[in-house]
TrEMBL record:
Protein name: Spore germination protein
Listed Pfam families: Spore_permease
Keywords: Germination, Membrane, Transmembrane, Transmembrane helix, Transport
Gene3D superfamilies registered for this protein in UniProt: Amino acid/polyamine transporter I (1.20.1740.10)
């Protein structure tokens, strides 16, 4: 147990979980969905809420049954010591993959649109160093960063959306379901893996001061995420038009249309800043969860001793996992959906079912 010293509020949990989902989905999801669903990509995004609701309520149910424990800890309570430890180390690998991939994705975006001549290692080193520094400071520091960054990012997105309103053309949304339901379902597959990342709330809940309103906060966060993603997808479709499905960063491309009297234009650098800040928050949460998970499995009281070595390992993994941006995109498109469904939805659900069966057996034998 390492939950005694650091505590965050219910509001901070709600505001932290938003960038965990949106930070990497906001630019990629519209193009990924439109590749299959075409003008119905916004419907695909709506359907992705299924994995979000599923993951959210499973993790909330487990947290109620095991208050103050992280998934690493209650896995051992549910499955027994050795099988629980095995599941715990598996999730350590899963949590290790996330910051490595997020960092690589941020690096590719920065090199593509902001600093094309900066060496890959330099960007990764700086990004991971900043994330490691805030993880060292603790979950309270990460939450306070989120309180500052998330509202600013949302304001930037809303202002950009307002400025793009005149460039939106509704004709690009017709015909609705003109290609049938199957393409819509195909367009929902990849983004559903991102919304399933609500499972991260299971690592945050043991550090909440008062958990009475956590379910409400989780539902509100899910609503904010879905509203943002549906609106951004609608705007990408109506501004970028038929080429939306051919773009990896469709919303970013749409922001480049902003122009007011040939004076106020080229606001896309602001969007780059907003996405990097969101990626920083998301990466920090996953790196923090990785550190506390390894510490719990090794029996360390202070997870901070692991921040530096795990951050360095993340840097090495970024250079090792993917040789280039295309390889990473292929993984996210073809492997991540099943990977996410298993790790974020199916395994937690199986833990909940096993726990229900054990408790029922105990009640019958009593």
């Amino acid at each position: 147990m390492m939950t005694g010293k650091e505590k965050i509020s219910t509001f901070q949990v709600a505001i932290l979980i938003v960038p965990v989902i949106v930070a990497t989905e906001i630019f990629s999801a519209p193009g990924t969905s439109a590749e299959y669903a075409k003008e119905d990509a916004w419907i695909s995004i709506l359907l992705t809420s299924v994995t979000g609701v599923w993951s959210l309520f499973v993790m909330l149910a487990l947290a109620i049954r095991y208050p103050g424990l992280t998934p690493i800890e209650y896995s051992q309570e549910i499955l027994g010591k050795w099988l629980g430890i095995l599941v715990g180390w598996y999730y350590v690998f899963v949590l290790f993959w996330y910051p490595a991939t997020i960092s690589d994705e941020m690096m590719n975006f920065i090199r593509l649109f902001a600093n094309p001549t900066t060496p890959r290692v330099a960007i990764l080193l700086l990004f991971i160093f900043v994330c490691g520094a805030v993880v060292w400071a603790g979950i309270e520091a990460i939450a306070r960063c989120a309180e500052l960054i998330v509202p600013i990012n949302i304001i930037f997105i809303l202002i950009t959306s307002f400025l793009l309103f005149g460039d939106m053309e509704g004709k690009y949304l017709k015909p609705v379901l003109g290609h049938g339901l199957i393409p819509v379902l195909q367009g929902a597959v990849v983004p559903s893996a991102w919304t399933g990342e609500f499972f991260m709330i299971g690592f945050l809940l043991p550090f909440v001061k008062k958990s009475t309103q956590v379910r409400r906060a989780g539902v509100i966060s899910l609503g904010i995420v879905m509203l943002l993603m549906v609106w951004i997808t609608l705007q990408s479709l109506t501004v970028d038009g038929e080429i939306t499905g051919k773009m990896n960063y469709a919303f970013y491309a749409a922001t480049r249309y902003v122009s007011i009297a040939d004076f106020f234009e080229r606001i896309d650098p602001v969007i780059v800043e907003a996405w990097v800040f969101g990626g920083f928050l998301k990466n920090s949460v996953f790196l923090w969860a990785l550190c506390i998970s390894v510490a719990q499995l090794l029996g360390y009281e202070n997870y901070r001793t692991l921040v530096v070595p795990l951050s360095l390992m993340t840097l090495v993994a970024c250079l090792w996992f993917y040789s280039n941006a295309f390889e990473m995109q292929d993984f996210l498109k073809y492997t991540f959906p099943s990977w996410g469904l298993i790790n974020q939805n199916i395994i937690p659900t199986m833990l909940l079912m096993v726990d229900l069966a054990r408790r029922r057996r105990k009640a019958q034998s009593a």
